[in-house]
Design the sequence.
């Protein structure tokens, strides 16, 4: 895509990534893609704010060349050292060695560690300003969004906040780069939530702290490093992030994530009866087969629903491994304080329930009910399962 002016002399020079299958080597983005948004302030002194992954170097450099000559670049602001924003830094260094890198103290050590770059690096303090001529940059320290060195850069005259990973989301840009031109708002909201839970959720406390820090900063445009640029309604993405961050400590809305696994269909049959019970009680339910669905998609449902029903059989004296993995990912992402219940089939001695209870305890999830049955469910089991679902739904509503 060509460079796009987002405010006078402030340009988007981002790159769309539609060929990486796994973001951070882990999270599927084959379908959604992702953008690495980079920005260029073309003033008397010239600055690029955040870069891109080390690919499509020609396209990236061409975009810059549309606006300015790289030989005249004065600054590269590194808000965050993660290679999705710095992969191209060494290449840029070779072409424009005169440009001073501006970053936080912690980022300076990381740049040396990741890229052996130490020359011509200047650290900036929280609140420090830098005049580029008509434009002024201010650096805001926002540690742990989502690495310890992260900061945001604020352009004070046009009131543009370059927030880096914060307020970002998966989803390559589909022609439109601005919220007001976007014809797929639901896609970006969904992908921003998935990104939030996959990447940022563990750092929900720093998110709330940063939002609080920003409350007196007038912002016209939120320009994150991934996803849409918010110029019509910058408050929208901040509000979404605030809401999602709150689910780390306060119960999310009434709803059930029903996650299940099944080898021969016994637990699955039960799952359908449980879902009928939940849904019949008027509580929305999202259903995932844990063996077939990447945790990237399951975790958001666990994050935004108050209740989690777990259905999985016994496997070699313990819980079905794909379920153990899903619950382990929930633990790693600090998804705490949910209400939960378990059902599952076993063949002889059981053991699935026991392992579930151990995992639920370490997750600090409150177990409201459990229901183990042998082999294939009977008519009576299925009736009980429906009631089990209905009662769980009532309990999380109350
Ligand atoms: C690989 C494998 C390991 C199993 N290990 C146990 C076990 O240790 N204890 C037990 O009670 N049942 C065990 N079972 C039996 C299953 O729990 C039982 O077949 C159950 O009905 C499967 O439910 P599903 O149809 O929902 O997969 C095992 C089954 C398989 C295929
Ligand atoms: Fe990052
Ligand atoms: Fe990033």
Sequence:
């Amino acid at each position: 895509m060509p460079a796009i002016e987002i405010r006078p002399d402030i340009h988007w020079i981002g790159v769309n990534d539609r060929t990486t299958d796994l973001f951070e080597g882990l999270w599927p983005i084959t379908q959604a893609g992702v953008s690495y948004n980079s920005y260029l302030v073309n003033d008397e002194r010239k600055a690029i704010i955040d870069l891109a992954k080390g690919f499509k170097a020609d396209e990236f450099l061409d975009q810059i060349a549309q606006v300015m000559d790289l030989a005249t670049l004065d600054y590269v602001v590194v808000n965050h050292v993660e290679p999705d924003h710095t992969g191209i830094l060494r290449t840029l260094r070779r072409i424009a060695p005169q440009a001073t890198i501006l970053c936080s103290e912690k980022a300076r050590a990381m740049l040396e560690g990741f890229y052996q770059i130490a020359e011509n690096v200047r650290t900036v303090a929280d609140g420090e300003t830098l005049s580029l001529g008509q434009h002024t940059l201010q650096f805001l320290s926002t540690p742990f969004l989502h690495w310890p060195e992260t900061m945001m850069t604020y352009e004070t005259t046009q009131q543009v906040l370059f927030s880096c990973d914060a307020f970002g989301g998966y989803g390559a840009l589909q022609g439109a780069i601005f919220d007001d031109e976007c014809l797929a708002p639901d896609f970006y909201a969904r992908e921003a939530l998935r990104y939030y839970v996959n990447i940022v959720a563990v750092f929900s406390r720093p998110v709330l702290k940063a939002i609080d820090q920003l409350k007196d900063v007038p912002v016209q445009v939120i320009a994150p490093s991934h996803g849409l640029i918010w110029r019509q309604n910058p408050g929208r993405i901040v509000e979404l992030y605030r809401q999602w961050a709150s689910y780390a400590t306060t119960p999310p809305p009434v709803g059930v994530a029903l996650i299940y696994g099944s080898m021969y269909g016994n637990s699955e049959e039960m799952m359908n009866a449980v879902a009928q019970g939940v849904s019949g009680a008027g509580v929305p339910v999202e259903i995932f087969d844990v063996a077939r669905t990447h945790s990237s998609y399951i975790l958001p449902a666990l994050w935004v629903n108050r209740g989690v029903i777990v259905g999985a059989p016994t496997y070699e004296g313990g819980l079905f491994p794909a379920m153990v993995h899903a619950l382990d990912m929930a633990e790693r992402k600090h998804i705490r304080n949910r209400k939960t219940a378990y059902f599952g089939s076993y063949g002889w001695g059981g053991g699935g329930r026991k392992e579930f209870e151990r995992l639920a305890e370490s997750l600090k999830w409150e177990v409201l009910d459990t229901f183990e049955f042998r082999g294939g469910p009977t008519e009576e089991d299925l009736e009980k399962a429906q009631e089990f679902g209905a009662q769980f739904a009532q309990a999380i509503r109350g």
